[in-house]
Amino acid sequence: MAEAILVPQVGQDLTEAKVVELHVKLGDKVKKGDLVAVVESEKASFEVEAFSEGVVISLPWKVGDVATVLEPLMHVGAEGEVVAAAKTAVPDPVQTAVPQTVHTPATVPVSATPAPVPTPAPAPAPVEAAVSGGDRASPVARRMAADHGLSIGRIAGTGPRGAVVLRDVAAAVAAAPAGGALELRTLQSGQGTPVVFIHGFGADLSSWRPLVARIGLGSPMMALDLPGHGGSQGHGAADFAALVDAVGATLRSLHGGVHLVGHSLGAAVAAALTERGDLDVRSLTLIAPAGLGASVDGDFVDGFLSARSEGALAAWMRRLVSDPASLAPVLVRATLAARDEAGLVPAQTRVARGVFEGSTQLFNVAAALRAYRGPCSVIAGRDDAIVPLREIEAAVPAHVALHRLDRVGHLPQVEAADLVQTVIARTVRSAG
Q: Which intervals hold domain Peripheral subunit-binding (PSBD) (predicted)?
């Protein structure tokens, strides 16, 4: 016998919910516990599961429809079974003879054959009345907006009662510019060709300030935030090629040559910029560079992103160094404080998914490093637990100076700051 899966009531005083996902179609077989749909209202979203095994024999709603709560979302029964006509076609004697057609503010009609509703539907708001959703937004819409660095309060809502729903956020994401200049700041003024510092995954440009103060060069010292980080949090670039494009576009605005100093992911970006042909890279200093092998500590990436307390974050960040005592508590607290910025962790998660897959790096810059003929130094720690030294050694060509540091992990600029600043200054000066 056919059984109905009802539209859940996702709010105590709500009478309707929008169908935002359908995971089945007519004739599909389902079993108990299968996810069959997702519906949402201005207050919540809800995943609908099948509570019995069978075949989908009735599916009166489609994605985008506004369904009536506690009415059948679909029927599950035996193959070939037909839903009784009384359940779908014959109106209740106390109802009007012709069912009303309900429209959302975006004028999307519901199915032509829904089960009759117990009370007349309220008059829909006109399209012109759709306004910014403000606090009225479904949780799934809020999550998607945060993932893309968008303010939910600036998105026009077309859901029930003007709420911002998933479709509205998707449209805002599509309309938002993915490019734009990255955050680029001068950390120290000077004369001549600027030295530009590019941080690694999970950091930001402020992490370079202690090192810059010790280098002693008379050149301008600048640093930028990678997409998804710091002041570039809202930039839409996610995969490696897009990161390189974004950094290249920003540095071209300097209208001249640059010396590049990069750490980890930032080092890989710096190396990749040398083979584009549209940027005059005078020298390269690569610190614990990613992109020279396949391996990365995927557990660290996941743990770092999921940590929400100082204790948890410190536990993961200790993997970055050889001696845990060298990890200053202020560095952990600064990293944790930066996470108060709404959307930062989702933005970095988006970048992580674009450049890493589990414990694998999805990019390689070894060819770019082999082709580069300017002054180049690579600094790597023998105790690096994030990017293995053996893979860096195998990829660094003979014409590049490789400095292997004992008792140093993935942060040579922290654990061996004096040596690192000396190498940077020497490499920059060797470019003439």
A: 136-173
Which superfamily is assigned to 184-430 in CATH?
Alpha/Beta hydrolase fold, catalytic domain (3.40.50.1820)
Every domain of the chain and the residues it spans: 3-88, 127-175, 184-430
Residue labelled with tokens 């829904």:
114
Class of domain 3-88: mainly beta
Residue-wise burial string across 193-205, b where 16 or more C-beta atoms lie within 10 A, e elsewhere: bbbbbbbbbbbbb
Q: Which of 55, 49, 374, 411 is nearest to 208 (CA)?
A: 411
Residue 265: its pLDDT value, please?
Answer: 98
Tens digits of per-residue pLDDT, 84-133? Answer: 643 333 333 333 233 333 333 332 333 333 333 343 333 333 322 233 33
Prediction pTM value? 0.62
> What is the Cα–Cα distance from 192 to 184, expressed in whole angstroms?
17
Higher pLDDT, 216 or 112: 216
From CA 105, how far away is CA 350, in angstroms rounded?
32
